[in-house]
Write a structure and sequence with these properties.
Number of strands: 2
Order of helices and strands: HHHEEH
Number of domains: 1
Mean pLDDT: 92
CATH architecture: Up-down Bundle
Number of helices: 4
Shape: elongated
Radius of gyration: 18 Å
Structural class: mainly alpha
Helix content: 55-70%
Oligomer: single chain
């Protein structure tokens, strides 16, 4: 199999952050879909606790990732048609936006419910809004719809990467391996 456009790869830190966050985010989306359907129980409370802790980890990793992305050179997309370059940039920046929006709305949910968030038992992350049932419902709805948007973007991102690898036979996908 021959590959066109042998350009530089992303660095090891960018690749590590990409795959670590991909695994955690996909796991969190699956956990979120699973746990919301559970009846009230000790298991559900435990899963919600993990969900909140990993959500805060995602927020911290997203901050590190965006800082790294903005301060490092990224492989060029110049070999792509302009519509693919524009699409890739739009999807990537939407993914970054939602990587922040998901944990922040989760934090808002917990705050509006009147609880702080534990970070793996190491420290408490304080509430950021006062407890309020009306805001709680609004933040829950936002969190849910952002999750659906994130799922759609991840699917589109994955399909585009596979298209580049198997159909276009270029190195776009391999640059992140």
């Amino acid at each position: 199999m021959s590959f066109k456009n042998t350009e530089t790869k992303f660095g090891s830190i960018a690749i590590s952050l990409h795959w670590l966050m991909a695994i955690i985010i996909i796991g969190m989306l699956a956990l979120g879909l699973y746990m919301t359907g559970l009846p009230k129980s000790a298991l559900k409370l435990k899963l919600y606790g993990w969900h909140k802790e990993f959500g805060m980890l995602i927020l911290m990793l997203a901050a590190a990732r965006i800082s790294w992305r903005l301060s490092n050179i990224n492989p060029s997309l110049a070999s792509l048609p302009s519509w693919e370059r524009l699409g890739a940039l739009a999807v990537h920046w939407m993914l970054y936006l939602l990587m922040f929006a998901m944990p922040i709305t989760g934090w808002l949910i917990t705050s509006a419910a009147g609880f702080p968030v534990s970070f793996f038992g190491l420290f408490l992350i304080p509430t950021i809004v006062p407890a309020d049932e009306n805001w709680l419902k609004i933040f829950e709805t936002m969190h849910e719809w952002i999750a659906y948007g994130l799922i759609a973007l991840i699917i589109g991102h994955t399909l585009a990467a596979l298209k580049h690898h198997f159909i276009d036979k270029d190195d776009i996908f391999r640059r992140m391996l």
